[in-house]
Design brief:
With 464 residues, the chain is of the alpha/beta class. It contains 13 helices and 18 strands. The protein is globular. The chain binds flavin-adenine dinucleotide.
């Protein structure tokens, strides 16, 4: 990146940042040492939602956010735009951690969070192309159908009904998503398709209007009790919040806290109505299928398909670099998979390719917490489900900081401590073996029609 970044520096980062209407030139940098009440590292959705709820609850509070690049530079400005109730830890895992009622409360809180994001964006005039069309997960093989049935059965065991997650027949699934090889699927209404950069940049505007000091191009070099050290000065505060997700391992003392795993995306040109007549996706439900190596898509407000998936390699030492955002082989595989799903899209131009790091904790359980003695707080480890979860994190951190006892601060992910990842090279070996096994298992399942034992074993090793 050049030393005088402009609007054009950040447009190529993702389709979303390329098409956000606001200017992207960096704002004010930290002018020198500063004392505030709350200091936040990272201006993605975690940092900005936390600042938003603090500034809203207590307008006089002095809140500063220090961001290495610009607000929304990280995963928050690059993701698939599923504002969903998905939480990376299963009901079973949460139940073992904290009991059945706590597990159910966590999932219900996530459902309510989707609506909270919709409420705030409407109230604050953030036009993020909100369309609460739910999610269709297609089952495109017998084994995927088996997994869909098992998922619905697990939800029923915990008291979630048809209007939380429904099993779809082949005809019902095809009526929503006109993909090939559809045998059935599931549908949940608890998801909105959004334009993520419009959300995160809109939120940055709103927090600035509420008096939050947002410093861009201000990398944090160390997080310590009551202190954020940056390249431009030191911020001292009663509370210091880490909101750096996939970039966290670069901070001193935190290199094994989460691993940055890359997710990559492509976007087509706007598709003609005749193609949409075949694909469907009326009401803009987000969609995926039941394979192990995740794929996800949305119909954008301007009539494109934005489509992504995992499979890019993990890099030794949890390295994060701009060049890792682009892996031609993964873009090619995404293009091919999209064409397999929707042959009508095969001739369409791919106008954008991009990617970014998400944060995976060792036990795949996101967390938000605060140590009142040191003033250190954090939220993250959302795996690929952070768009809505960051909002719950922001409300929760605001309640913890302000000492407001609430239902949110009693949820089981609060103050949960995930174990550290293994040291290298074990970490590199394990994660890349896991990624390869998932891809291999999908191919084997498609060939044999039988569920892959290797994928189950690897899934357990990785804790997902
Ligand atoms: C390609 C992709 C697709 C995804 N799709 C979805 C989806 O459809 N739905 C969903 O729910 N989730 C999805 N996710 C995950 C989701 O985007 C993230 O979980 C969420 O955005 C995390 O927000 P955050 O604010 O915690 O982290 P980020 O948005 O990554 O923000 C962290 C910020 O901290 C800054 N930073 C890092 N280090 C420093 C430092 N030392 N000093 C100062 N600032 C620093 C970064 O520049 C960045 O702006 C996806 C992620 C990716 C990459």
């Amino acid at each position: 990146m050049d030393s005088m970044p402009s609007d054009q520096t950040y447009r190529p980062v993702s389709f979303w940042l390329d098409t956000v209407p606001d200017p992207l030139a960096p704002g004010e940098v930290l002018p020198g040492d500063l004392a505030v009440d709350v200091a936040i590292a990272g201006a993605g959705l975690t940092g900005l939602w936390t600042a938003y709820y603090l500034a809203t609850a207590q307008p006089g509070l002095r809140v500063a956010v220090c961001e290495a690049q610009i607000a929304g530079f990280g995963a928050s400005g690059r993701n698939g735009g599923w504002c969903s109730a998905l939480f990376p830890a299963s009901l079973g895992k949460l139940s073992r951690m904290a009991g059945r009622d706590a597990a159910v409360a966590m999932y219900r809180a996530m459902q309510a969070t989707v609506d909270e994001v919709g409420r705030v964006t409407a109230a604050e005039n953030i036009d993020c192309h909100w369309a609460k069309g739910g999610t269709v997960q297609l089952a495109r093989s017998a084994t995927q159908l088996e997994r869909a049935r098992a998922e619905v059965a697990e939800m029923r065991e915990y008291g979630f009904a048809e209007d939380d997650l429904a099993l779809l027949t082949e005809t019902e699934a095809r009526a929503r998503v006109g993909a090939t090889s559809v045998l059935g699927g599931t549908y949940t209404p608890h998801c909105a398709a959004i334009h993520p950069a419009r959300l995160v940049r809109g939120l940055a505007r709103v927090v600035r209007e509420r008096g939050v000091k947002l410093f861009e191009r201000t990398p944090v070099t160390q997080i310590a009790p009551h202190t954020l050290r940056t390249t431009r000065g030191t911020v001292t505060a009663d509370y210091v919040i880490r909101a750096t997700e996939g970039y966290t391992p670069a901070l001193p003392g935190l290199h094994r806290a989460v691993v940055p795993v890359y997710s990559l995306m492509i976007a087509t040109e706007p598709l003609p109505d005749s193609t949409w007549d075949q694909i469907g996706l009326a009401g803009r439900p987000t969609f995926g299928d039941g394979r192990h190596l995740l794929i996800y898509g949305q119909r954008t407000a301007d009539g494109r398909l934005a489509f992504g998936g995992r499979g890019a390699p993990y890099h030794l030492g949890s390295a994060v670099r701009p060049s890792f955002d682009r892996v031609p082989a993964v873009f090619g595989a995404l293009r091919q998979t999209l064409g397999e799903l929707f042959p009508a899209v095969n001739g369409a131009a791919i106008t954008h390719t991009w990617g970014g790091p998400l944060g995976i904790p060792r036990d795949w359980c996101a967390s938000a917490g605060l140590d009142r003695d040191t003033g250190l707080g954090w939220a993250g480890g959302y795996v690929g489900d952070g768009v809505a979860t960051t909002n719950l994190a922001g409300r929760t951190l605001a309640d913890l900081i302000l000492g407001t006892g609430s239902d949110l601060t009693r949820l089981p992910w609060v103050n949960h401590r995930s174990p550290q990842w293994e040291t290298e090279p074990l970490r590199w070996l394990g994660i890349n073996a896991g990624l390869r096994t998932m891809g291999w298992a999908d191919r084997a399942e498609a060939r044999t029609g039988r569920s892959s034992r290797a994928a189950q074993v690897m899934g357990r090793f990785l804790g997902g």
